Amino acid sequence: MDTLKRIGVYTSGGDAPGMNACVRAVVRTAAAHDLEVIGIRRGYAGMIEGDFVEIDGRSVSNIVQQGGTILKSARSKRFQTPEGRARAAANLREAGVQGLVAIGGDGTLRGASIFTEEHHIPIVGCPGTIDNDLFGTDETIGYDTALNTALENIDRIRDTADAHDRLFLVEVMGRDAGFIALNCAIGGGAELVLIPETLVELDEIKERIHSLMSAQTRSSIVVVAEGEELGGAQRIEQALLEDGAFSHIDIRVCILGHTQRGGSPTARDRVLASRLGAAAVEALLEGHSGVMVGIVNNEVKLTSMRNVWSRKKNINYELLKLTQLLS
Ligand code: ATP
Fold it and tell me: At the top level of CATH, which class does the domain 6-142+265-310 belong to?
């Protein structure tokens, strides 16, 4: 490979707080090594359209604290076709891009590993997703912020639930993974948590809610991950409303939704994103490709992207037991 002179960076898939801190670290680390950086706007969609912008150390001033992503993010169906990827590779070559840093979730890294195998443009990935569901890193960029946002909202809901002796079903993000749900259930003192990794039968949920609401005249909070097996908070509410045994309970649903994606990243996310952005550039300089940089036991670790998207990161089942013990 020619000596690296110019690299590209992009954010892709669902945005996550801390992506900007990561972009900043990529750009500033590159500058420290005399590398030029091209920002690719709107992820793979922008790569296919040649939506490129030159960025230097100054262009990333004052973004470390901002949520969202200055490079914008998108999902692209065209990138899933060989023609789309060929177009993207041609644009990158024309712009003189010799290596890439991809910031995104499992879909983004899956696309990146297919792309680098097909077109031989080196890519190093950074785990950027609020879901925390990537193998190869203890935490992903955006997870800590999303978790704390969810927790803050649960605290608020607790106040109003308590004032009216209500049962609240609070739905948090997590289509395939229950990391946010499980941890904010513990932090928020929820009485029950439902996550995609475990199937709790409806009868068991009903029984549990029934005993919770009759054992105490106070409120209850059930945290439901959006990808939970029964179909989310609204489905569960419907099932409870259709059952006469719950007619005396005032049930409310609160879907936290996209509030969890936005906002200024926490200190933890900023530091994580900064470490990973810098490590990604250093990995590219060392000649690595097709790998994701992660932090495991507080140390930078490289994991093959194929492993990242083909292996599953497990939740800590001890924590699930803890929610039951403490509720
Ligand atoms: P999040 O987990 O936050 O949703 P993500 O990176 O997993 O983020 P996806 O929408 O799954 O988000 O993926 C982002 C983009 O990656 C897709 O829009 C697509 O362009 C590309 N991509 C995903 N899977 C593939 C694939 N199998 N082949 C090529 N490209 C892919």
Answer: alpha beta
pTM of model > 0.90: yes
Asked if the 144-261 domain carries CATH number 3.40.50.460, the reply is: yes
Active-site residue flag, 131: yes
Residue 217 has pLDDT above 70, yes or no: no
Task: Report the nearest-CA residue for atom 26 of ligand 1.
Answer: 111
Q: What is the dihedral of CA 239, 240, 241, 244, to 10 degrees?
A: 110
28 CB-near residues (< 8 Å, 6+ apart): 57, 60, 278
- Taking CA atoms only, the protein residue closest to ligand 1 atom 2 is 105
Which atom of ligand 1 is closest in space to residue 80's alpha carbon? 29
246 C-beta closer than 6 A to ligand 1: no
Ligand 1 center–CA 92 separation, angstroms: 19
Domain boundaries defined on the chain: 6-142+265-310, 144-261
| Contact in structure between 305 and 134 (CB atoms under 8 Å) | no
Given pLDDT bands bounded at 50, 70 and 90, which one contains residue 46?
A: very high
Regarding the beta carbon of 131 and ligand 1, being less than 6 Å apart is answered yes
Domains 6-142+265-310 and 144-261 share a fold: yes
The finding on whether 84 has its CB within 6 A of some atom of ligand 1 is no
